[in-house]
Amino acid sequence: MQGGYRNKQxxxxxxxxxLSVITIVYNGSGFIERTIKSVVNQSYKNIEYIIIDxxxxxxxxxxxxxxxxxxxxxxxxxxxxxxxxxxxxxxLAKGDYVIFMNAGDQFHNETTVKRIFTTNANADIxxxxxxxxxxxxxxxGPRRLRPPEKLTWKSFRMGMxxxxxxxxxxxxxxxxxxxxxxxxxxxxxxxxxxxxxKTLENVHFYIANYLSGGASWQNQKKALNERFNIMKKHYGIxxxxxxxxxxxxxxxxxxxxxxxxxx
Length: 263
Known about the structure:
Blueprint (H helix, E strand, L loop, with lengths): L1 E2 L15 E7 L6 H9 L6 E7 L6 H7 L6 E4 L5 H11 L4 E4 L5 E2 L4 H8 L5 E9 L5 E4 L24 E4 L14 H12 L3 E12 L3 H4 L1 H16 L1 H21 L6
Parallel strand pairs: 2-3, 2-5, 3-4, 7-10
Antiparallel strand pairs: 1-4, 5-9, 6-10, 7-8, 7-9
Helix pairs in contact: 5-7, 7-8
GO molecular function, one term: hexosyltransferase activity
Keywords: Transferase
Protein name: Glycosyl transferase
């Protein structure tokens, strides 16, 4: 099942760059509308919006259809997990850049995308800060791991310093996600993107409001194991042992304190 204006005709965007925003959702009726509104209400209009629904059993699709005239393409079908769904979105995207803004996540405000491309209209990657929010959209403060002033592919040795929802990459540099990873494939994907990028632009403001409580924090032990294997692949065993000890300690402290991990 699918819909959206691309089924009838492509929208002729007035200028470049065009940003493909991809939303992955499954049974997200409680959160999907806030995400849709944050995308379709952007002051920057060169946005191609794609929604990949995993055959939701609640009224997610009914909500999506309300905004169909503002959605380039939506599909609703079973998938093999979140990264399989993300790959579908990447393969459907036609924009110059891509970003994932999943159900419950939002652009920080209505001028976010416009400000990003005003900074530099031709960077390979744009990145910025992330605000953590609860189920009601209330601020829980900035993400504990903050973006470095200068980001490189080596920066992630100490963890995912930039949230996936605050990471915009040229579509031609974006590979498909490795489906061998079930929880932390986004880290592997971001590193691969950065390895190919020549210019990484720090926008120095919030890009996304991130809904606390993602899959990796609900499966912390498995996430740590996947992260270790990903870092070992990219950085080597010696480097990853020392850095991963610090990451494990960070998890332990957070658990003792009784707080939620916020990536």
